[in-house]
From TrEMBL:
Residue ranges annotated for the COMM domain, each copy included: 124-191
Cited PROSITE patterns: COMM
GO biological process: sodium ion transport
UniProt cross-references to Pfam families, sorted A to Z: COMM_domain, COMM_HN
Taxonomic source organism: Scomber scombrus (Atlantic mackerel)
Protein name, as recorded: COMM domain-containing protein 3
Length: 193
């Protein structure tokens, strides 16, 4: 796994028994996983009694580095041996590697679910309906005599249905159809590469 220098320094501090003893190391590992899995992002998560004696700057650097490693491992779908070898390179003891990897294995599925839920996806169009209408007069009682289309897109975003409604003139509809055809061709070309 590729990790930045600051993340590596934070993890090396976490590996140092003089900085994190036998009680503070597992506490920080647990806190790192819980801070990712908690829905409210509690800023007091580092206020554990086992972490009180540690320098706050060192604690925050090590916490950020541990969280970065966790997210990177989950993102790459790293198994226990990959995480273990990464920690070995950062001078973690076998006992600390076992603690970290055990916690990683316990929470990996939850974290995968969390990462897949992040981000936005454009809505998927399920159906289109349209209706042709004709403007005869506008609000100032001037004659307009123009056709226009009422378009309704039935879409779905993450299982939630939603209707998108808009109106357009004949020229705007022709432009929309042309752009949709161009987009379809681009997607087809990209899928063939």
């Amino acid at each position: 796994m590729e990790l930045s220098e600051s993340v590596q320094r934070g993890l090396q501090s976490l590996a140092d028994p003089s900085a994190f003893d036998q009680t503070s190391f597992p506490a920080l590992v647990d806190v790192s996983f819980q801070s990712l899995l908690s829905s409210h992002g509690d800023p007091a998560v580092l206020d554990q009694p086992q972490l009180k004696q540690i320098d706050q700057i060192l604690l925050k650097q090590s916490h950020a580095a541990a969280v970065t490693l966790i997210l990177e491992a989950v993102k790459q779908n790293a198994d226990k041996s990959t995480v273990s070898s990464c920690l070995e390179e950062l001078t973690f003891s076998a006992e600390r590697i076992e603690i970290f990897c055990g916690t990683y294995q316990r929470h990996k599925k939850e974290l995968e679910h969390l990462l897949t839920s992040i981000g936005t996806q454009p809505p998927r169009v399920n159906d289109v309906s349209w209706r042709l209408q004709y403007h005869m007069k506008n609000g100032q009682l001037d004659k307009v005599n123009e056709p226009f289309y009422l378009i309704s897109l039935n879409t779905e975003t993450k299982g939630t249905p939603e209707d998108i409604n808009f109106t357009c003139t004949v020229e705007q509809l022709q432009d929309l159809v042309g752009k949709l055809k161009d987009a379809a061709k681009s997607v087809e070309k990209a899928s063939q590469m």
